[in-house]
Design brief:
The chain is 6% helix and 41% strand. By secondary structure, the protein is mostly beta strands. The longest helix has 19 residues.
Length: 322
């Protein structure tokens, strides 16, 4: 990942990469300018405008300076250039929401399908759908997804399961019926309403972390068995817990309607954590998920408390990482 002190020297390279990735008609490279007087001048925009009426939820950022956003309105996917702030709709949705997103090193975007009970894999370059999976026909909300070396794991906010897409050799995707349904046991107790939401890996990579919105509890999941153990966060609850991100032993928890991000220091196994700080920003308007690029966190504003219209504006905001 890039850090701000390196950004001045590589801004032109990133701009060139950005233009070649999205295409000159969608994103233009920034005009040449004198070198900034200070190395810490913001070279990337801190607010990214999304299309009006977009209804964002998830965000994914890979190795290149691009952020991907799904629409709850119709499942379309939007690709934004972090260098310029410009972007385009590059993949048409199935008419049902696109919610949680993650991107892998092969440029494949894994998309949670919310109430559609499904997930799909989309090329981050062409926007073509590479594979689709119907996880369940029961009432469901396939909410978020995390990638591990052996597969992609999806949460369901209405069912006590994880859904796994096991990877074959060289990351090969399974057949349409090749997913695995993992029942959750142990400390996790399914509640009425909205349950499993964000998902991330433990710092040591051996387990998964999931937040339960209905209780504010954080759980460690054994991905092989589905056995859950509640993570010891002391007296703290993750009220309105939504998207999760682990960066080393740092855990970021987006608390959507609380308009804040809780930052915890975890032990290696992810069985306990200590609150370090709370991040807020006056631009937050019900942020839902988080991705990191360089020394910044990027969060889309879902604006759940604002009645949506086709003209309602939406943004994603960048803040310094803790």
């Amino acid at each position: 990942m890039l850090h701000r002190r390196k950004l001045v020297g590589v801004a032109a390279v990133l701009a060139a990469l950005a233009t070649s990735f999205v295409g000159p008609s969608a994103v233009a490279a920034p005009a040449a300018a004198p070198a900034p007087a200070q190395a810490d001048v913001d070279l990337f925009p801190t607010t990214i405008a999304l299309p009006n009426g977009w209804l964002p939820e998830g965000i994914a950022i890979g190795l290149l300076p691009f952020a991907f956003f799904g629409s709850r309105a119709d499942g379309d996917l939007y690709r934004a250039n972090l260098v310029t702030g410009q972007g385009e709709v590059f993949s048409q949705g199935p008419g049902t929401p696109s919610v949680g997103l993650k991107i892998d090193l092969l440029g494949r975007l894994f998309v949670s399908g919310g109430p559609g009970g499904d997930g799909r894999v989309v090329s981050a370059f062409s926007g073509n759908v590479l594979a689709s999976y119907k996880f369940t026909t029961d009432p469901s909300f396939v909410n978020d997804v995390v990638l591990t070396p052996d597969g992609a794991y999806f949460t369901d906010s209405l069912q006590p399961f994880l859904y796994k897409l096991p990877f074959g050799r060289f990351g090969r995707l399974p057949a349409a019926d090749g997913f695995v349904k993992i029942p959750l046991t142990g400390d996790y107790v399914h509640q009425p309403g909205f349950n499993l939401n964000g998902i991330a890996r433990t710092p040591d990579g051996t387990g998964l972390l999931v937040v339960q919105s209905a209780t504010g509890f954080l759980f460690r999941v054994d991905p092989a068995t589905g056995v859950t153990t509640r993570v010891d966060l002391g007296a703290n609850l993750l009220t309105n817990g939504d998207g999760l991100l682990t960066d080393g032993r740092t855990l970021y928890v987006v608390q959507n309607r609380s308009n804040q991000v809780a930052v915890y220091r975890l032990n290696s196994a992810g069985t306990s954590g200590t609150l370090q700080t709370i991040l807020t920003d006056p631009r937050f308007d019900v942020p839902t998920t988080v991705a990191k690029f360089g020394d910044r966190l990027y969060l889309p504003n879902a604006r759940f408390t604002t009645p949506p219209t086709p003209d309602t504006p939406y943004t994603a905001n960048a803040i310094p990482a803790a």
